[in-house]
Amino acid sequence: MPAAGRHFLQIPGPTNVPDRVLRAIDNPTMDHRGPAFGEMGAEVLALLKQVFQTSGPVIVYPASGTGAWEAALTNTLSPGDHVLMSETGWFASLWREMAERLSLHPEFIPGDWRRGADVAGIAERLAKDSSHAIKAVCVVHNETSTGCVSQIAEVRAAIDAAKHPALLMVDTISSLASIDYKHEAWGVDVTVAGSQKGLMLPPGLSFNAISPKAEAARKTAKLPRSYWDWGPMLAANATGFFPYTPATNLLYGAKAACEMLLEEGLANVFARHDRHAEATRRAVRAWGLEIQCAEPKHYSSSLTAVRLPEGHSADALRGKILEKFNMSLGNGLGQLKDRVFRIGHLGDFNDLMLCGTLSGVEMGLRAAGVPHKEGGVQAAMAYLAGNA
Amino acid sequence: MPAAGRHFLQIPGPTNVPDRVLRAIDNPTMDHRGPAFGEMGAEVLALLKQVFQTSGPVIVYPASGTGAWEAALTNTLSPGDHVLMSETGWFASLWREMAERLSLHPEFIPGDWRRGADVAGIAERLAKDSSHAIKAVCVVHNETSTGCVSQIAEVRAAIDAAKHPALLMVDTISSLASIDYKHEAWGVDVTVAGSQKGLMLPPGLSFNAISPKAEAARKTAKLPRSYWDWGPMLAANATGFFPYTPATNLLYGAKAACEMLLEEGLANVFARHDRHAEATRRAVRAWGLEIQCAEPKHYSSSLTAVRLPEGHSADALRGKILEKFNMSLGNGLGQLKDRVFRIGHLGDFNDLMLCGTLSGVEMGLRAAGVPHKEGGVQAAMAYLAGNA
Amino acid sequence: MPAAGRHFLQIPGPTNVPDRVLRAIDNPTMDHRGPAFGEMGAEVLALLKQVFQTSGPVIVYPASGTGAWEAALTNTLSPGDHVLMSETGWFASLWREMAERLSLHPEFIPGDWRRGADVAGIAERLAKDSSHAIKAVCVVHNETSTGCVSQIAEVRAAIDAAKHPALLMVDTISSLASIDYKHEAWGVDVTVAGSQKGLMLPPGLSFNAISPKAEAARKTAKLPRSYWDWGPMLAANATGFFPYTPATNLLYGAKAACEMLLEEGLANVFARHDRHAEATRRAVRAWGLEIQCAEPKHYSSSLTAVRLPEGHSADALRGKILEKFNMSLGNGLGQLKDRVFRIGHLGDFNDLMLCGTLSGVEMGLRAAGVPHKEGGVQAAMAYLAGNA
Amino acid sequence: MPAAGRHFLQIPGPTNVPDRVLRAIDNPTMDHRGPAFGEMGAEVLALLKQVFQTSGPVIVYPASGTGAWEAALTNTLSPGDHVLMSETGWFASLWREMAERLSLHPEFIPGDWRRGADVAGIAERLAKDSSHAIKAVCVVHNETSTGCVSQIAEVRAAIDAAKHPALLMVDTISSLASIDYKHEAWGVDVTVAGSQKGLMLPPGLSFNAISPKAEAARKTAKLPRSYWDWGPMLAANATGFFPYTPATNLLYGAKAACEMLLEEGLANVFARHDRHAEATRRAVRAWGLEIQCAEPKHYSSSLTAVRLPEGHSADALRGKILEKFNMSLGNGLGQLKDRVFRIGHLGDFNDLMLCGTLSGVEMGLRAAGVPHKEGGVQAAMAYLAGNA
Q1: Which chains touch C (3 or more CB pairs under 8 A)?
Q2: D93-144: pLDDT as tens digits
Q3: Which of C46, C358, D89, D239 has the most CB atoms in a 10 Å sphere around its CB?
Q4: The A290-291 sheet, strands edge to edge
Q5: Cα–Cα distance between C189 and C209 in angstroms, integer?
Q6: For residue A95, how many other CB atoms are within 10 A of its CB?
Q7: Which of B16, B264, B324 minimises the CB distance to A1?
Q8: DSSP E strand stretches across chain B
Q9: In D, which residues are within 8 Å of B26 by CB distance?
């Protein structure tokens, strides 16, 4: 029997794409070398700078976020370079794997997947690196596999305190436009982002916001690169164009999405996400379940990963919720496989969508026979109604 | 500040139009006299018969439901004809007004707006009408202003018991494709319907399903008619065409919507609506509020009208909910103005949309200072989870 | 084998709906009684006034153009009233039939379907009507069946010269927003229009622009009316709302379409149509075929009807063109059945679409074995290139 | 003044995206790890095989065609490997540049940009390469900058005749689904393609169809790769999924586009393109202009590049045509800058769109003062009408 009503897409990305963005995307493709494109391209690039909170360039790739990781590394580094990474979870681990495949030498500060990046560990390692073997510090801002946020300003301060010249690279794939993030003010050199989360777009675009220092590093970086090379991008972007055919229709959507974010106001967007995250955590606690993130100051505002009691399968729960309540939740990844489920509460989202989402979880826990207390939705509503 | 996320359109129609229907509607308009149109037209007309549960013709007007009321009357009646109507609420009253404006003579059996049509009253009046002055009995199946359903099969039985030749006309504007309705099996002569409720379309189409007896009545009916005349419609519809330019793009949508309903199965569609209505009533009772419909066997499965405690304004509550929770609810009409609000739970709808909706009401009651008990959403979830 | 590429919809309406309008129409339906609707409704109504070139009200019906004909008559006239009509072609004849069905008494000045309304005949009849039996003069501005335009300002002058109080009603269904038309400056009392021609919308909306004199006539007009009644419309429209559920999604489209027309500028829109019509006529002459309109000052700028040589079937030609070249052309209606085909060159249209259209006709004439000379497209291009 | 009517996008890609594809793309994004995605993914991958005419795997990247070039090289080759390339034009030159940037050693057989790949030159070089230093032969099937087609089956025969183990890689970016191309039957090892040409999609997807030999080469190839690595792709694709977030909405479009191509039938699609190309060449000859492709058996069926008379600027002509006739044409690239313009006649295209296109060129030549004879459109029509 086909499912009636609107599917609840509550994975931590791709998120629910607003109708305004979908309608933008389905406009006829235009000549990517004509004057109308140049105007549109320049507009999109300018809008993106506001969203990344930078006055510098933002590179747009027709690619998934994974591509933007690769671009960050290949544009700035040379084979054998050491990069310092912090094990925040599955995505930090994948980024490390990529660095290895690209012939870099990642140093991985171990973590327990229950908090953000280990700033003290980073500081300690940099302090010892008097030869400056480490060329970059790579941190995942919001670890999508765990719902833990790293303190980027603190990482910056640690690098500065060590007077270390390493570049700071930050993955904001599931935080940009959901959790406050200041590329320029925080002194980030390369910010990596994707379209399908807080930016409210379908997947297919990814981004590098870059600092002058990163741009300079490109000139000596020896990793081979062609598709990802910033050089031709920066040159063509200067007039609103791209060196190869861009994903025109997704750019239409990017324009619409940025306009929506700026109309709402970034501060309001971030406050909305904070509020929904707090309501979600109150629901989780009311159910008597455990939040994967163990450090309150690292709580993510874009998703919440929830641990299941021993002996219960998160995937069985998710399957039941999909079947009975037409909602998709995020699965556990890597060492968290089947141990957690993840509730995405980011993107184009509001109070009643959240209540519907939490209702689906609460009814799903019951349907799947997972031990819990009732009252999670009630707790969330009490918070939302008091703070509306 | 613009509202984020999807608006909850929970008035009892127009309802949330599914993406599949919207995508159908935005296809290029075609030649309404070309062969491809004829094929499409014939398909839509055949599908509609299934939805109306009839083997006879269904006429489609480019018009609102109000137009289909007018069509029902003008095709079958003559100036001065008596029509027997039952005061179920605001829409029954408007239909009576229309009958008067069209120079008919409506007899209106009074009602208290808290139950369906007064079948005993209808039976009694028909029994007395030995001269057969009454030419039609007009009943609203689902009174959208009150959430009360009339028992059409009983009305039919009453007419038959009286051996009265009056036509039976039924307004199913807010019940078709939501609440079980059998045009043919119940012996209805003219069924009036609209596109924007259970049919999951935008407003702009309305319908008359007609019996052979109604078709015969047209030949002697003297009310002037042109736009609404069934004659040219039936002739042109025979080959899938229309006598004047039809609302082509809405017909694309009608095809998609009927296909969706039949894929789900009408029985499943009705069961889904019954279930959501029961969950809603449990929420209302948990809040300690009163359901406008006072007769359980007349409860509507497409909407629930809820009475506010004395001294509280339903419109203030609705305004607060729209402002804080981005949800539209139905207002009180006529004598119920500001006394009730109406929750639409019909159309393309599912459990989590309902939970979001009820959450919005519960938080709104709190925000607006309307006395109530908490736990409505909890009660609804208990029912839904047990019955999912 | 499915047809590749875009269909050429070159009937004289429905016309090619621009993507911007289709994208507007497929937005989610909103609450037609909520504040956002009121704002949108007021905007649409204000924009429409500009398109009709009037400062007075424009009524919008969820209905085909045929409905707006009926509305014009029923709001202003009483049973038995004489109306003076001029036989310009098929649509004037249909309007007359409608008047008869509505119990009016139409007087029909005969015509040969090859020119606009017979202004002298109208003047003559009015001069004789010293008792003012004639209550309305009804004229089709652009006769869609023939491609002949009536001179509305001259009709107005004739009425004035006769000092006759009859209302002036004009059908602009296939001229509005294509051929210059000034409701107010020309002293028209009721203008009838539809959505699916120059307004670039799908079918489903129709319009009455009304003068204060027409509005006053409503108060004494005795034809029964309910759906079409201006009274409740004017009252509700004052705040941007409608007395019954409007065709919300088509109104979204109407807003977009009016904005497009005003961005281009009405004068530019009219000039564009004039130019394409002249190019089309040059093509027709080059082919050695005859234009149905025999009076150059009555040439239509929205369509051109073309006569076929004796012994050749226009419908066979149209069928061939549809089959081989994926283009729909208009058929001959009434006495012109199978004698003419009609080329629509109105709406969202440009030079290259016209050249494609004329190429389809020229190749179709050849494929169907209709005697003609080559060079029609060449002649059109010579004109367009010289005037571009 | 905004341009009325539909823009003619007649660059050789991106092409006019059909409404059916655009409507598919604007459906809500789904969970890329859920069961519904797996089904859809498997369907798309199976459909693509049919379009590439292969029983082997087709890899889909969220990327431009440029990315698929890079993927072909990095998956199969090691630093310093020799690759044999043939200078067919601008895109062959760019591919060579990319090979250099990736630390390969391209050998470039010079060409005059007026014919397809130099098969004799390839044969000759391979014959001399007894040490098998050459690891791959890379050929552009349809050189988008010149409108010349390379004979892939002949290249295959040359490699076989030389008994040379080099891989055969073919760029079909502007030929796939427009010009007959048989990945498997022609023994191609890696086929490179993009979404925005014959596949009728917006840009943003690119493809590698691969042979077992290519797949085997991956195991020893030492170029660093991560994003482009076939390994994880093949593993995930086996169940319809992707190793990183795919461009979901473009995949919806890919499904619709493949279905359209297969409904029409590939043979019909190719014949349609051949016919439009021949009509275009007849127009060019009638104008007295020169076709860039000097070798008739190398004529492209997807685009025609046209040389301007000495002293005339192709870019000025294109600018005039865009301004006056709302049509985009392709510009001259590299050594052909300002010397040629390119007419794209590929993708979702039909006879009347072609006639409109050629009319725009003919009127543009006149408007721009480029010496030419009239009659190009006439010549094209004569051919099309005779062959329709």
Answers
A1: A, B, D
A2: 999 999 999 999 999 999 999 999 999 999 999 999 999 999 999 999 999 9
A3: C358
A4: A290-291, A303-307, A340-344
A5: 8
A6: 25
A7: B264
A8: 8-10, 58-62, 82-86, 105-109, 134-140, 142-143, 148-149, 167-171, 190-194, 205-210, 290-291, 303-307, 327-329, 340-344
A9: 23
Count the Cβ atoms, other than its own, within 10 Å of residue B165.
11
Q: To 10 degrees, what angle do helices A351-367 and B351-367 make? A: 120
Q: How far is B376 from chain C (nearest CA, A)?
A: 25
Alpha-carbon distance C309 to A251, whole Å? 53
pTM for this predicted structure: 0.97
Chain C partners within 8 Å of B315 (Cβ): none
Separation CA B103–CA B98 (nearest Å): 9
H helices of C171-244, in order, are 212-218, 230-237
- Chains with ≥3 Cβ pairs under 8 A against B? A, C, D
CB-CB contact of C149 with C179 (8 Å): yes
Instruction: Give the type of residue at D64.
Output: S
- Token pair 């596999």 is found at A145
CB atoms within 10 A of CB A46: 13
Give partners of A (≥3 CB pairs < 8 A): B, C, D
Tell me the C-alpha distance between C277 and C148, whole Å.
Answer: 12
Pairwise CA distance, residues A58 & A52, whole Å? 8
Chain B interface mutation, best of D23, D27, D30, D252, highest count of B Cβ atoms under 10 Å = D23
**Can you tell me whether residue B290 is helix, strand or coil?**
strand
ipTM above 0.90?
A: yes
User: Do the Cβ atoms of C14 and B26 come within 8 Å?
Assistant: no
Angle, helices C351-367 vs D351-367, to 10°: value is: 120
Q: What gap in Å lies between CA D199 and CA A29, rounded to an integer?
A: 13
For residue C354, give the chain D residue with the closest CA.
D356
How many other CB atoms are there within 10 angstroms of residue D220's CB atom?
A: 9
Chain A residues near residue D31 by CB distance under 8 angstroms: 9, 11, 14, 328
- DSSP 8-state code for residue D331: P
Q: How far is CA C294 from CA C297, C341, C370, in A?
A: 9, 15, 22
CB A102 within 8 A of CB A74: yes
CA-based radius of gyration for chain C: 21
Distance from CA of C26 to the nearest CA of A (A): 8
For range C206-227, the mean pLDDT: 97
Query: In a structure prediction context, what are the per-residue pLDDT tens digits for chain B, which is 388 residues long?
Result: 678 999 999 999 999 999 999 999 999 999 999 999 999 999 999 999 999 999 999 999 999 999 999 999 999 999 999 999 999 999 999 999 999 999 999 999 999 999 999 999 999 999 999 999 999 999 999 999 999 999 999 999 999 999 999 999 999 999 999 999 999 999 999 999 999 999 999 999 999 999 999 999 999 999 999 999 999 999 999 999 999 999 999 999 999 999 999 999 999 999 999 999 999 999 999 999 999 999 999 999 999 999 999 999 999 999 999 999 999 999 999 999 999 999 999 999 999 999 999 999 999 999 999 999 999 999 999 999 986 5
D10: distance to nearest CA of chain C, Å?
12
With beta carbons under 8 A apart, name residues in chain D contacting C280: none
Q: Flag if B23 and D19 touch (Cβ within 8 Å).
A: no
Q: What residues have CB less than 8 Å from A311, skipping those under 6 apart?
A: none
pLDDT band for C386, please (50, 70, 90 cuts): confident
Which chain D residue's Cα is nearest to C19? D6
Using a CB-CB cut-off of 8 Å, the residues of chain D touching C6 are: 6, 16, 18-19, 348, 350, 353
Whether the ω angle into residue D165 lies within 30 degrees of 0, i.e. cis, is: no
Cis status, amide bond into D14, omega within 30 of 0:
yes
